[in-house]
Structures are given as structure tokens and as C-alpha cells.
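tool_call: predict_structure(chain=1)
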Amino acid sequence: MAAAMILAAGLGTRLRPLTDELPKPLLWLGDRPLVAHIAARLAAGAARRVVLNRSHLAERFSRELLAALPVEVDLVDEPEPFGTAGGLANAARALGEGDVVLWNGDILIDLDVAALSAAHAQRGAAATLAVAPRAAGEGTLGLGARGEVVRLRGERFGEEAAGGDFVGVHVVGEALRRRLPSRGCMVGDVYLPWLREGRALATFPAPAVWHDIGTVAAYLAANARWLWRCGQASHVGPGALVAEGVDVTGSVVGAGARVEGAGALRGCVVWPGARVAVGAGAPLERAVVTTRGTVARAPA
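tool_result:
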């Protein structure tokens, strides 16, 4: 399989105050950080080399954390976020030559990475974007009869046969890697100019259910999905203590956390090592509790 890169340098402004404490890829999701779920998919796809870029709260990507991942990961630092295209360009030496699987560090999806890479290689495409299916005219892009991209960011490049959502995972070939700007966006500064030149971008069918973890509500939904996939009504991590008077429903309580009081915890995520008290008359619902005691709530 191709080399792979996890884009982890973004600021995560829509997820503040959570991202004031952790970069988005390190947010706790189920029983481990989001980046561990991504690394597991790349490991299952037999990635030969994985690189992760870091900028915002870079020190939180510790060697100890990376050592616990299911695949070896090399770090590339950015003094400031260079963007999705600039980040890939900056990691050129670490990645080596050839195709690269690029995975946005805030995306959770059960994608067959090996199949994506194989489809890209078979077609000899400049890039292959993983796309969740939508009806024609819907979604972030449009597909032609052969699955090629014919609509992107409102611009049209051919007749649309189906719509879709780009899920933030793609394979970038060598020809496009040579055109990468030192700072910029893959879609706006690489893919759109390529399409305007009359060139093609391929797509690969992705699962219809996926999570772009850009808001507190989306983060809670991803944890709820994880519980459902694991067949658990709730999850309480190792060493966590939940008071007998607390009813935990549809929630994730991280390792070593403490939930005190007498009341209900519904649809919440309590980070590992965090502490929270709930009251009988005021259940805590659709909220995230951090180790600093921050409580971030999703809109009702």
C-alpha cells in the first residue's frame, strides 16, 4: 500500500473550548483517541509508512502516545498550520516518492484503505477521492457516469450522474504532489485548478455513515455511534468510578474519571481523568467534561 499521512495540524476552532486543551485528533472517542482509530484503519490497509503533521498544541502528540498506536508514525512539525496541501508538501521528505493516502485527522470512517489504494493504482489516477453516495445534485461534489468528479465547490466540469460527499480521505498521486503549494488547500488550490485544466479526478465509494468531528454535537454523535457498533449502552473505562446514585445512559466515561453525586449522565463524554458531579434535579445531558473541568454542551 502507499504511504499515508494523517493531517493533524489544524486549529479546530469550531470545537473550542475542547481544542483549547487537545488537538482534534486527540479527542477521546470511545476507549481511545480519535487518531488511534485512524491509525487502526491505516494499519489494516498495510500502510508502509505513516506520517502525522502537528502544529496546534504540538507537544500533546507525545512519543508515548504514538508508541501505543497500531502502526509506526513519524512526526513532522509545522510552525503554523500550512493547510491540507501545504502540510502534504512539507512532509515530502518523510513520505518519500509515490502515492500518498491523505486522511484528515478529524474524520472517523470505516474505510477499506487497501481497496482505495488498489482502485487508485488500477486506474492510474492523479488522485482518488473517497466519496459517500448521495443523489444527483446533492452533496459536496458531483460524479460523472464513470465516477469521475464533475462538480466541486459549485463549479461544473461535466454531466452529473450522481452526487456525493467527499469524506476527507483520498489518495494523491505523484503528478499532483509535484504541484503542491507550500501553503494552501487540496481542494481549492490543487484539485480545482486541475479540473479547470480539463484533467480528471477519480472517486472511490465510501460508507454512507461517517463522522466529520468539527462540532461538539458531531463529537458526541461519533461517540454514540462507537457505542452502538460495540453493542454497549454505555462505556466506563478502567479505573473510572461512578457513584452508585448516578444513572449513566448512552455515555462514555474515560479511564480514571470520577462521576459523583446522585443523578443522571445522558449522552455525555467524560474524558479520562476528568471529574464531574451530577445532581438529582439537574441531569447532565449532551455534554463533554474535560480534565480541566470544562463542560462543553451540544445544542439541544
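agent: The mean pLDDT is 92. Proceeding to next step.
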